[in-house]
Amino acid sequence: MKSRYAKLLSLATLGAVWVFGPACKPAGAQVQPAVPIPAADGGVQTLTQGPIHEAFAEPINYTPTAGDVIPKAPPADINEIPPDERPDGDPLWIPGYWYWDADRNDFIWVSGIWRIPPPDCTWIPGYWTAVTGGWTWSPGFWMINAVQEVQYLPTAPPESLEVGPSSPAPGVDYLWTPGLWVWTGGNYGWRPGYWVQARTDWVWVPACYIWTPRGYIFVEGYWDYVVDRRGVIFAPVYIPTTVYVQPAYVYTPTIVIETNVFIDCLWVSPHHRHYYFGDYYDARYARRGFVPWFDYHHRRHCYDPIYVHERWRRHDDADRWERRMRDDHHRRETNVDARPPRVYSERNMAVSRDADHREYRMATRLSDTAKRDDRRFQRINEEQRNVARDRAREMTTFRDQRNKVESRRDKNNTGSLAIPRFQEQERKAAVDVPSRPEGSRHGRTDRDRQRDVERDRDQQRQRSEGERQQLQQQQERQRIDRDAQQRDQERQRVERDNQQREEQRQRVERDNQQREEQRQRVERDTKQREEQRQRVERENQERQRDQERQRVERDNQQRQRDQERQRVERENQERQRDQERQRVERENQERQRDQDRQRVERENQQRQEQDRQRDQDRQKQEQDRQERDRGGRNR
Length: 635
Description:
Shape: flat
Strand content: 15-25%
Low-confidence stretches: 1-41, 354-358, 422-431, 442-446
Radius of gyration: 48 Å
Helix content: 40-55%
Distance between the termini: 174 Å
Largest sheet: 5 strands, antiparallel
C-alpha cells in the first residue's frame, strides 16, 4: 500500500489547474481582454480568489468532456517546498500546479496542500496536454486501491438516464446516489441509483467518468473525510515570469484558506472539475458559467458531494439554511462593499462578513492557524520535509508518465495504465470507515472478480508463510532470550555487589558533603545577614536623601509659585493703574471736548445775537430813513 500510494501520488502533481475563466475558449477562439488587477509589492500576490486544489475536493459532472482550450502553454513547475508545519493524521504533501486565470490572461500557481487521503484510495494527478489549437487540462482523481490499473474506455458513456430517487428513502439518514452507465462486456449498461446510509463525519463521493485524450476512465465511488478533516488548503499565488524563471527561486506556501469558504463563498463552473472560492459575484463570471455551489447540484447531470452532505447534516433546518445562503449571496451580488477581498494582505487580512455582518477570516498565516485551530499541528524536521519533496518529485514523474501514455494515439484508442508502487508511509486504518455500498459494486467485470480471487489467494498464502516463519523466529528468539537471561543474572549479581560497595562509599561521601554543606550554609547565612544589614542602611540613607531632595524641591516649587503669584499681582495692579489712568484721560478729553463744544455754541449764539441786533438796527435805520423820506415828501 505504501509504494502504491506514493507512485499514484506522483501522478497527482500535474493535477488540477482547470479553472480557466473567460480566456479558456474552444480552439481557435479569441482570448478576451484581461481585466486589469493591481500588482502587489514585489509583483508576487497571495490570492483569496481562485481554484481549490482538485485533490482536496472536486465536483462531479456525469457528462465527461474535454476542458476548454487555451492558446498559451503552461510554464515549467516551480520549486515548491512544503511548509514546516502540518496537521496531525499523517497527511501527504500533494504539490501544486499551474492554473489559467482569465482575469490576468496568465497562469497562477495553485499551491500544494497537506491532504489526508480518503481511506483505501490513491491520488491520480492531472496534467496539461497539448491539443489542436492550444492546451487543455486532463483532471486528476482519487482511485480506490482495489483497482490495479487504469482502464481506458474508447467511447463516452451515453447521456445519463437519472431522474431522481425511484423509491422512498429507508430513513432520514439516507442519501440518494444517482445511477450511471457502466462498461460491461464491451458495451455500456445502466446501473440504477441507490440509497446510501449517510454518516455525519464521512462524505460519500459517487462514481463518475473522467475524460482523457486516450479515452474515458471509470472512477468508482468512495468515502471521503468531511472538509474540516481533510487537511490544509493554501492560497493560490500570482508569480510574475521574471520571478519564477530565476534558477534559485523557491516557493513555500504560508497562507491558509479557511474551510468556511466551502459554505460561504464557494463556486463551481460546469465546464471544469474544480471548486472556486472568493469573489466571483460580478455578472461577467455568471456569463462565463460560474454558479454558486448550492445551485450547481440542482443542474442536470451534476452532483456536489459537499452540498449533499451539508444539506443532509442540517436536514431538520435545511430549507432555512439554504435560504440564508441565498440571501447572503444576493447581498454580495448587489453590494460590492460586502464582497470578500481578492488579494491577501496584512492590512485587510482577507476578512469577510456573513449575513449577520459577523466578520470571519478567509485566509490566515499557517503559524496563526496552528495556534488557534482545533486540529493539532506538528513541526516537521528537514528529513521529513525532504521525504515530502521526494514524493512530490515522484508524483511529477508519474504525472509525466500518465501524460505520455494518454497522449498516444493508438488505432482503437484503448489500453491501460499500470498503477506503480511507490514507497509510502505506513498508515493506520481508519477505525470508523463506512463499508462500501452494495450498489457501488455493480458493473464489475469477470476480470476484476478473478483478480480479486487471485489476490485473496496470494494474500492467504503469504499470511500462512509469514505465520510459519514468525513461529520459527519466535522459538529462536526464546532460546536466545534464555541464554541472555542467565548471563544477565550473573552480571546483575556482580553489579549488585559492586553497587553495594559503591553505595557505601557514596554514603560516606554524602556525610562529608553534608557537613561541608552545613558549614557553607552557616557562612552563607552570616554573609546574607551582613548584606541585609548593609542593604537596610543603604536604603535608609537613600530614603533620607530622597526625602531631603523632595523637601528642597517642594520649597523651590513653593518659592517659584510665590514669586510667580507676586509677579502676576504686580502686573495686574499695573494693568489696573494703566486702565484707570486711561479712563481718567478719556474722561478729561471728553470733558474738554464738551467744554469746547459749549464754548463754540455760546460764541455761535452770541454771533447770531449780534447779527440779529445789527439786522434790527439796520431795519430800524431803514424805517427811520423811510419815515424821513415820507416826511420830506409831505412837506
